Amino acid sequence: MTPDQRDLDELVKRLLADPANSDHPMHYALSQLWLAHRELLNRIERITHVSDAYQSIAREREMSLAERFDKQLRQLEKVARISDRYQQMMRELNIALEEASTHDVLTSLANRRLLMERLKAETERAGRLQHDFCVAMVDIDHFKQVNDQHGHDTGDRVLIEIARVMQAEVREYDLCGRWGGEEFLILLPELDLASAQVVVERVRLGIRNLAIRQGTEALTITVSAGLAAHLPGESYSDTINRADAALLRAKQHGRDCLVLAS
Ligand SMILES: Nc1nc2c(ncn2[C@@H]2O[C@H](COP(=O)(O)OP(=O)(O)OP(=O)(O)O)[C@@H](O)[C@H]2O)c(=O)[nH]1
């Protein structure tokens, strides 16, 4: 509708609505004309709408086969890209979930669950292939004092640093894990007691040499450790218990040392 038509429309509406014109002899005729006019406009609008839809369908039909094929191909590519992104997201989520369920959040070391799985597998392998393996229990000395004197955040930093040294000092196929609060377990496959002792001593001295910065001072942290070689036929819990008993003796001997299990 043009602006002039709109003005005329408004004027007729006002004239018909004005009570002063209700008795005018042309009032009835004008109102009938007005209704007919509105009806006509509505019909034109509907026809235009249908015609637009029809033209768009006709345009689609006129599209060449190649164009339609291209369009469908583009749509398929889009769906494939979305699906690729979705699958990548799912893969990343799975990796993150796997990592969270098998690793300690603070130190990123193996958690107790992963340690137990590997201990079980190693015990079975040792039984099958007559391989040796050793277990070391490593516990921070007087860690409560570190927390009490320097705060929990510093305590956490100490745990992270110790984990880093452990990882650096063991071999690639050894597994370090956080067994409990300030207690760590090192699984040393295919090593006899004497060779495992060398590795665990290296870890112990590496931790001792850490010198963790705390304000102007450098904290010296020591650990005590107990080491046990898995005996043929024994369960991994028994091996851990013997390593734990050796650790207790290390604590009783004044800490900062490694004791071999009997
Ligand atoms: N900062 C921090 N502290 C922890 C965490 N887990 C356990 N601890 C602390 O570790 C300390 C362990 O204390 P204790 O069992 O008395 O052992 P300790 O002081 O190391 O003494 P010994 O083992 O006998 O040498 C407690 O103060 C716990 O709060 C942790 O994730 N972060």
UniProtKB/TrEMBL annotation:
Residues 131-262 form the GGDEF domain. Its EC number is 2.7.7.65. SUPFAM superfamilies: Nucleotide cyclase. It catalyses: 2 GTP = 3',3'-c-di-GMP + 2 diphosphate. Gene3D superfamilies: 3.30.70.270. InterPro entries: Diguanylate_Cyclase (IPR050469), GGDEF_dom (IPR000160), Nucleotide_cyclase (IPR029787), Rev_trsase/Diguanyl_cyclase (IPR043128). PANTHER family: DIGUANYLATE CYCLASE DGCM-RELATED, REGULATORY COMPONENTS OF SENSORY TRANSDUCTION SYSTEM. This is diguanylate cyclase. It comes from Chitinimonas prasina. The lineage of its organism: Bacteria, Pseudomonadati, Pseudomonadota, Betaproteobacteria, Neisseriales.
